[in-house]
Task: inverse folding
């Protein structure tokens, strides 16, 4: 229970940073997506089920903070990203940064493409390559740079949470 509360508090901190601080440090109106970094990192470190649940909650909270035409779309997209990043749980190595960076890049690309479809393509704007070049790729690069910084913090937090879980299980036996 304590682990879940700490993860939820971390998620709220990430959401507040995403909605308040990151727009202030945007470059050319592009902000990094910390919620994808959180979802991918913890999905990768904790497995499919945790990735799915954390992704859904991240998306739902983001939907509540940033209202859009399709409420629940971010919840679905983040849930999808968290679940599929959890698939790599078995090939995950703690200190290897390549897997989280690749999964974050893929997740951010999928996120950007789905939002292109719902925000622009459905309204008749069909210039996909312009959107990829001007919005998706810069956001993906910015998010990858954020992943390199934040992944270590999330890794340390996850290691402490796992130690707490092992200690609490050991106290019951």
Result:
């Amino acid at each position: 229970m304590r682990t879940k509360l700490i993860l939820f508090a971390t998620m709220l901190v990430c959401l507040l940073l995403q909605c308040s601080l990151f727009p202030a440090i945007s470059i050319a109106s592009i902000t990094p997506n910390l919620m994808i970094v959180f979802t991918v990192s913890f999905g990768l470190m904790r497995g499919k089920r945790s990735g799915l649940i954390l992704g859904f909650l991240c998306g739902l909270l983001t939907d509540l903070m940033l209202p859009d035409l399709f409420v629940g779309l971010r919840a679905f997209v983040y849930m999808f990203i968290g679940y599929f990043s959890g698939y790599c749980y078995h090939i995950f190595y703690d200190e290897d940064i390549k897997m989280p960076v690749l999964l974050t890049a893929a997740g951010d690309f999928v996120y950007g493409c789905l939002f292109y479809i719902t925000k622009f393509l459905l309204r008749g704007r069909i210039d996909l390559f312009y959107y990829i070049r001007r919005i998706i790729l810069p956001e993906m690069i910015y998010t990858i740079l954020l992943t390199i910084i934040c992944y270590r913090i999330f890794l340390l937090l996850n290691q402490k949470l796992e130690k707490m879980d092992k200690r609490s299980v050991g106290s019951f036996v």
In short: The domain at 2-168 is CATH 1.10.1760 (Arp2/3 complex 21 kDa subunit ARPC3).
